[in-house]
Amino acid sequence: VRQKPVIEEKTVVKEEPVVPVPTDTTSVVEKTDTVVAVSPETSKPFYMALKTNMLYDVLAVPNIGVEFYLGKNWSISGNWMYGWWKNDRRHRYWRVYGGEVGLRKYFGQRASDKPLTGHHVGVYGQLLTYDFEFGGRGYMGGRPGGTLWDKAHYGVGFEYGYSLPVARRLNLDFSLGLGYCLLYTSDAADDLIGVD
User: Fold this and answer.
1) Global pTM?
2) How far is CA 132 from the centre of its chain?
3) At CA 48, angle to CA 116 and CA 117, rounded to 5?
4) What is the mean pLDDT of residues 136-146?
5) Which among 41, 61, 109, 137 is placed 20 to 30 Å from 190, CA to CA?
C-alpha cells in the first residue's frame, strides 16, 4: 500500500526590509502593516548665469557678469567692464571701465518653468568712467586725475527684458533700461588728458 504524501499549506507573508536611517534626516510612520519613510523637504537647486554684453564685445570693451537666482523668481546680478586701449603717438584713446548691480523679478510661464528665463523687470545701479579721443580731441567722463570715485558717473534705473532660452544652458537676454545718470563730462583737449 502506497501512502499519499501529505502537503501542508502554509501562508507566507512577504515583508519589505526596512533599512535603518538616521532619525535626524527621516521620520518613519507605521500604519497597520505598511512602513512609509517620509523624508524632509529637499534643498532647491542652485541656479547661476555667467553673462557677457555682446554690444560691449562688438565695441572692444571686454565685460563679464554673473546672476544668482534667489528663489521665488528673484535674482541679483553684477557686471564689470574694462577696456583700456590707447595709442599715444596718434592721440587715440578708447578707455572705459565700470560696473553695475541689479535686482530682477522674473514672471510669466517660462519663468515658472525654469529660473532665469522669460520676462523680467528690475532696478539697477551703475558706476562707470571713460576717456575717448580720436586724434587730438575727445571726451572724458568725470574730472581729470583722481580715482574712479572722483571720475565716475553714477546712475540708477529701471529695466524690462526677456531672457530667451536658445539651448539647454544658453539664453539670450534682451533688456531695455530707463534711468538717471549723474555725470560730469570734459571736452578733452590734449592738455586735459596729459598728451603732448
Assistant:
1) 0.68
2) 30
3) 10
4) 69
5) 61
